[in-house]
Here is the input.
Amino acid sequence: MHAGPNSVGGALDAPSVADSLPPATQSAMDGSHVLFILSGSIACYKACDAISQLVQRGHRVRAVATEAALRFVGAATLEGITGQPVAHDLFAPGAALDHIGLARWADVVVVCPATANTLNRMAAGLGDDLAGALLLAHDWNKPLLVVPAMNPAMRSHPATVAAMARLQGWGARLLRGTSGRTACGEVGEGRLAEPDEIVAAIEAALARPARRLHVLITSGGTAEPIDGVRVIGNLSSGETGALVAEQFARRGHDVVLLRARNARVPAARCREETFSTFAELDALLDRWLREERFDAIIHAAAVSDFSVQAIERAGVLAAPAVGAKLESDVAPVLHLRRNPKLLDTLRTRSRNRDVCVVAFKLTRGADDAAARSAVAALAGSGRADFVVHNDLAARPDQSGAFPAAIWRAGGTLVARCADRVALAAALEQLLVSEPSKPEVANGAI
Ligand SMILES: Cc1cc2nc3c(=O)[nH]c(=O)nc-3n(C[C@H](O)[C@H](O)[C@H](O)COP(=O)(O)O)c2cc1C
Here is the structure.
């Protein structure tokens, strides 16, 4: 069975410990048993990709295929990627009790792709083939993940809609794909979710964190409009925020991601809203922090220090021409307004005043002493509990390397991380092991 997160306890207080932590991409390598049931859809080829990823990530996968699924993907392919024979015959000699044995063996059961036919049969409790019998014998204490794939008309048929609702009522988790063009050429809901999303959902279903955190993450860079087509922006890709969001979601935490519109989209599914400008991010933070009680905020967004207040052309001042395009005949003078620091207000705006706040600090050429004082200045007055520090001088090329260190607000070095993946893993382990503070009534601080 999938274990909880690696216990690090006080070990994270020691510098450099993150170097020895398992990378996030290997965090599930403890060999969970995944029973993967395929039914007859063109999307079986995508399911093969998901199965292959699961095996590479250390899980043991047993594939079960309906007769129709084997019309789309060969048993040899499934056997090749899982290293196990494919089960498909309820009455196979020597395997007649597979429909009970495999159900008991599994830590998680996945039906992917789930055809309209299989969904309807599952909801009706039919067990006249191996897939159906396995699902009838399902132990509802274990997660059952259903990943539908079908033509939009089949998807919206009342029987299919009712079957999905019935399965969810029994405790099945449904992973919907995005709307778009399906294999039959029609556009609408029904596409299978992408393989990396399927893997992330399976690992999230398996994960049992010691403490399930409610986490708000900001990611990507703001863009401050000059006119309808020009902005003052920054080079943030949103890579760090996306990897951190993925890590927390995959480990079973409840993640809300506020993401810049052009920032990297995480592979794991989170509740997500997008922003473009400082003002939009500010408004989103305001709403989420007041409406939900978060345990942690990881503020990784690169927020512009300035917004355009006015544009001066030939001595005439005007507001930013959002919705128009300024002519380029006259060089404009931009009058900038300093934006308030969002970090200053995260705690005071939060329903949970004891929320654990993680801030980010970028320096250039800072040694440990300089980093320590930069961290102290940023985290001062209780603004942040931890600061992730990275230095431009440590990323001299365009390699994407991102060596970072996590500091406690008091100035203790918590962990050094070789890259973003290690950083995401270290943050998750750190926040899970951080003792929660006793709840203080709003306004008491
Ligand atoms: C080329 C082709 C593609 C198909 N794709 C789908 C599909 O994506 N989703 C679906 O529900 N049925 C699809 N079907 C229909 C199913 O294969 C059919 O309903 C079959 O009986 C399902 O059996 P099963 O649910 O036991 O696997 C497809 C059929 C064909 C011939």
Notes: Residues 39-43, 66, 68-69, 115-118, 149-150, 154 surround flavin mononucleotide (CB under 6 Å). The chain has two domains: 29-206, 214-306+337-433. The two ends are 43 Å apart (CA to CA).
